[in-house]
Amino acid sequence: MKKEPISEARNLQNGSPAGPKFAREAVELGDPRELFRFCPSCGSTGIGWSGRFWRCGTCGFEYFHNVAAAAGLILNSGGSCLFLRRAKEPRRGCLALPGGFVDPGEAAERALQRECREELGWAPENLRFLASYPNRYTFKGVEYWTCDLFFIADLNKKDIDRLAPDPEESTGMEWIEFSSIPWPSIAFESTRQALRQYLLRI
User: Pick from 2, 22, 183, 199: CA 20 to 30 A from residue 50's CA?
Assistant: First the structure.
């Protein structure tokens, strides 16, 4: 294995593989005041952003812009990791791990298996939790903060033919050696952090 990914993975501070820069980003919430100009409940213009939620001074309506949960899979087969080339925004054309958002009432593990069935036509039976990292996900002009939970699974080379990527979700499937990960092509920062953390374990 090349030393570059490992040395990059060891850029740890306070237990976070992201280092001080990402730690700062994790607490710098953007200003979303322009998202709502009218109260969704009464229609007045008296709605204001508190830093965590919107509150209408006219009717008292409150809406919290809470963190969304998502799950991703590091699928290992013979020292290579499975990546999907994103077919949709955000970061269309970049590399991402199989996974997606957790639905209401759904456990992260079940959400990941559901997403794998949708994106790959297959889902791992055994998942091992790795770590979680904050992320930003901008969709149609709205920036969502997420907490991305990452899991690990293994796939035998003989079972690779069972994978059938959904063309609506990805434009291609790529197996890339962990020693040759193209870091700038990874779609999301949280994915880079999870992969670096995984490299510390292998």
Answer: 22
Give CA–CA dist 130/122, Å, rounded: 21
For residue 134, give both structure tokens.
Answer: 């904050």
Closest CA to 84 of 24, 14, 172: 172
At 84-131, the pLDDT tens digits run 999 999 999 999 999 999 999 999 999 999 999 999 999 999 999 999
CA dihedral 55, 51, 35, 88 (to 10 degrees): -130
Determine the 3-state secondary structure of 194 from DSSP.
helix
Task: Quote the tokens at residue 35.
Answer: 């998202």
Q: Give the three-class secondary structure for 6.
A: helix
Contact 147, 67 (CB under 8 A): yes
Interatomic CA distance for residues 147 and 19, integer angstroms: 17
User: 79 — alpha (psi -120 to 50), left (phi > 0) or beta?
Assistant: left
Neighbours of 181 (CB within 10 A): 21
Q: Is 107 helix (H, G, I), strand (E, B) or coil?
A: coil
Q: Which residues pair with 146 in a beta bridge?
A: 68, 135
Q: Side by side, which strands form the sheet with 53-56?
A: 47-49, 53-56, 62-64
Question: Residues of 61-100 as b/e, b for ≥16 C-beta within 10 angstroms?
Answer: bebebeeebbbbbbbbbeebbbbbbbeeeeeeebbbbbbb
What is the pTM (predicted TM-score) of this model? 0.81
